[in-house]
Amino acid sequence: MIPMKKFLLLCGVVLGCPLSVQAQEVSEAARVAVVHDVIFPDDLKLAGDGMDDAPTIQRAVSMICNARDHRSMAGIIQLQARVYEIDSTVDVPCAVTIRGTGWQEQMPLSAGTWLHITSKGAGSPAVHVHGREARGTVIRDIALYQDHPAPSSVARTAWKPTEYAPAILFSRIDGGVFLNHLLFAGIYGGVYADGVGRFEANGIYGEFYRYGISIHHSYDVDRIYDVHGWGYYTQSNTKSHPQNMLLTREQVGNIQDWKTENENLIILGRADTPFLDNIFGLGTHSVLQLTQDSNVGDYIGGHPSKIHSGKLSCDQSKYCLWVDNTTRGQVTGLFSQLDWQGEDSARLGKNIPDNAAIQLDGSAQLQIGDMFVQNVSGAAINMTNTSQCSNLMIHSMFGGFNQSPPSAPVAHMPACDRRGYNEIQLDAFTAVNNSGGKWPAFVDSGSVGHFLLSTYTEENRHTR
């Protein structure tokens, strides 16, 4: 009779079948051999782990990273269709693929693979991928959620989420990492990447309270595609909600008030030539925030440059594109489509005060294809920097000013420099009259700058 340990080793190496083993029964040789296939962390659970599943997943990671020949093979960690309780950090110092079975959007327990990040682990990331040997790491087909206090049932009562470290942290990798098909349901901070480069996220869905994706000190081309920021937590009012919370309209409104003032869906610090496309955000402070990174050790700071953005859609958000006042020097970028609506999602029919499709508290040089703006209360393009000038070239803009006050202009431009001016060049513009029944002003009375609008002449030539 073949001993069990030997049989398992033959199965993994000779037959090439997926190997599922019990932690207390497997030799170190078998643990190394299993790296050639798929590791199931649930089979590595120990009684001393308690409710925390992070040590179980950590054992699977360590089997891969400690394998003698791990530099040439990496490995796959397969999470099952259940809820994993995460009270501590899963540390990933080498290239692994962590994958789940997918997820069900309405969040019933055990419908797919879920990581429940508890408040016990709020001070550290749930997953930390770091170091150059972690290049090529993939995380996919997993949903995550956190515990937050219940909002008041009294409308317009201040609410604040529990502060957590990033759910997923990438640091000092200097190479590619990949995220695919992830759901973040009520997450304080989603993914934070610092010193990565070639960061790639494709299919990120979530409701966030600070940020969804935040990238810093990235000197290569990052790719962010198919991001959908929506109320995956507040709108999942079903009995199968993981915290069994049925939120009233007033409670949802209180959470939304926080998000409108605090959530920035995507944040780019020093990011050189990032690519973005199919980005949608609902009920945020900004959908895309551009900021400044400081020098940190051997990482040189700076601001985003040569941004390439395809479709950027911002619904019921204070700002669509926000260049904050920390930026030093001009942010540069190309945007194909920018669609923004400034309605207050907690008070439908009203606009968010002082909103803008493009808010330039810093300075920028931007080339924009088509803009579509609605529910303007401030200015569609609002510039506030008085020391650095900005230049915008826009192909076309449609202004839906019918829900806007008569005072709302297309642009506000202050005096910015004794040697230059803010400048906007707009090739084509049309609008719906504002609430006063008039065409919106291109600039308000306090503006100092150049607003250039192309004119067209008809030229008919006939040949006999």
List the defining traits of the structure above.
single chain, 464 residues, mainly beta, Pectate Lyase C-like, 25-stranded parallel beta sheet, 4 helices, 10% helix, globular, disordered N terminus, Pectate lyase superfamily protein domain-containing protein
CATH class: Mainly Beta
N-end to C-end Cα span: 101 Å
Query: What's the number of extended β-strand segments?
Result: 25
Q: What coarse outline follows from CA principal-axis ratios?
A: globular
Oligomer: single chain
Average residue pLDDT: 89
- Tally of individual domains: 1
Low-confidence stretches: 1-30
What is the percentage of strand-forming residues?
35-45%
As a percent range, the share of helical residues equals: under 10%
- N-to-C SSE series? HHEHEEEEEEEEEEEHEEEEEEEEEEEEE
- Give a quick account of the main beta sheet: strands, pairing sense, barrel closure: 25 strands, parallel
Which architecture would the CATH scheme give at its second level? Answer: 3 Solenoid
Count of alpha/pi helices: 4
Secondary structural class: mainly beta
Write up what this structure looks like.
This protein is 10% helix and 37% strand. It is mainly beta and 464 residues long. The chain has a single domain (31-453), classed as Single-stranded right-handed beta-helix, Pectin lyase-like (Pectate Lyase C-like). The chain has a 25-stranded parallel beta sheet that branches. Helix 3 (54-65) links the parallel strand 1 and strand 2 (76-78). Helix 1 (4-15) packs parallel to helix 2.
